[in-house]
Amino acid sequence: MCRHAAWLGAPRSLASLIHEPEHGLLRQSYAPRMQRHGRVNADGFGMGWYDGSLPEPVRYRRAVPMWTDANLPALARAARSGCLLAAVRTATVGMPIEETATAPFTDGPWLLSHNGRVARDALRDLADDAPSACDSAWVAAAVFARRREGRPLGESLAEVVVHAGAKDPGARLNLLACDGAALAATTWGDTLFLRADRPGPDLPYPGSSLPGPRPQGSPHAGGGVLVASEPLDDRPGWRAVPDRHLLLVSAGGVELQPL
Ligand code: GLN
Predict the structure, then answer these.
(1) Where are the residues of the annotated region Disordered (predicted)?
(2) pLDDT digits (tens, 9 = 90+) for 216-236
(3) Which of 15, 64, 72, 104 is the most exposed place for a label (fewest CB within 10 A)?
(4) Running DSSP on this structure, what letter comes out for residue 19?
(5) Which residues span the domain enclosing 158?
């Protein structure tokens, strides 16, 4: 099982998901606390972020253990954005260990990570091809095919998870994706946690939208929302997302829908 994490809110560095929290993704790469499948996440890692000067997200991924990349700490400190996604990987048995099998996968403005496993046959009628034989690359290709049909992020995730989950009852399909302005995630067989990190009023959860006007030019009032396979630290406020749900996070708030 891989571990993934994302942030939507006021601009932050990727180090805020990876290096700064006590149980950030660096620590989770060798000592995850809630992992049910696999013990370490040493088969690769990746991160993606949005730089206003570029039309598409910037992605950095490698098929080596996160702790071996001596260039990463400085890069993660410098890479800042209001929308961040990162992941560490333990390859499912039989899956290739290569960069093209490593999250985040990307297409246009979307970034996507898959925590779980699924029979590739369960995805064949949703995607024609994928850049790797890895099941996660096929999941990403299926989601990205929906994007190209103009479908919204959350709906694309939900459709692929429900379809593949019906075809492969043993599938685990925790997806985490973003498009620069919103996050979407599914729970289907593994854990997922959410934490509102903000000055100002609490995010309603589960709920539909934030009450009241937001300060001009600062849609998140300095705060935002963290989503992660397992909590990045021991601060209070982490909430478990129930299994078989779709989580949507945008500047408008947080929504939870059953799948
Ligand atoms: N099945 C995917 C892979 O092999 C994801 C694995 C995981 O969640 N550990 O990369």
Answers:
(1) 203-229
(2) 334 456 689 999 999 999 999
(3) 64
(4) T
(5) 3-258
Beta carbon of 114 within 6 Å of any ligand 1 atom: yes
Residues 6+ apart with CB under 8 A from 105: 111, 112, 113, 136, 137, 140, 141, 144
Mutate to test the pocket of ligand 1, among 92, 112, 161, 176 (most ligand atoms within 8 A of CB): 92
Report, as residue numbers or ranges, the catalytic residues. 2
Q: Give me the residue label for tokens 């929290």.
A: 21
Q: What is the DSSP letter of 203?
A: P
Amino acid letter, residue 35: Q
156-203 pLDDT, tens digit each: 999 999 999 999 999 999 999 999 999 999 999 999 999 998 654 444
**Separation between Cα atoms, residue 135 and residue 124, nearest integer Å:** 11
Ligand 1 closest atom vs CA 116: 8
Distances (CA, A) of 89 to 41, 47, 62, 232: 5, 12, 10, 16
Q: Does ligand 1 lie within 6 Å of residue 29's CB atom?
A: no
pTM of the model: 0.91
Count of CB atoms situated within 10 Å of the CB of 242: 12
CATH number at residue 51: 3.60.20.10
